[in-house]
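Dear support,

I submitted the protein below through the web form. The confirmation email said the job was done, but the results page showed an empty box. After a refresh the structure appeared. I'm attaching both so you can tell me whether what I see now is the final result or a partial one.
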Amino acid sequence: MASVPIDPDRAKKNPLYIEPELVYYGSYKNDNPPIRLRIATGGAGQSGLMRALADKFIDDHVKETGCKPFAVAWIKSDTAGSFNNLASGTADLSITYHPAAEAIAMQQGFTDRSVYAWRDHFMLV
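What the results page shows now:
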């Protein structure tokens, strides 16, 4: 997680700035907390999984550590866009679904690890 709040006015002056698709606050929306984590992903955001994970993470982290409330931003993208967001510093982490592309990102040096969590492509029959 970013150690300092992301200054939205300063960030918007960056030519690479990307407006978050959504911002999640957990139970703290009325507190208007600063964004401290920007996650680039596509399907996990579109399906609502990002919201559920972010809201729970925020609430649990604040409760367990006593830190001040914070927000998590969803940077809407696909796998290639997510890696570009990491490389440009417009995202702090990405959720992707392409092991070969993840390996290339690690070889290119703009990410330092890849952790398997899930695959979100599925079919209801």
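Response: this is the final, complete result; the empty box was a page-load delay. The CA atoms of residues 46 and 71 lie 18 Å apart.
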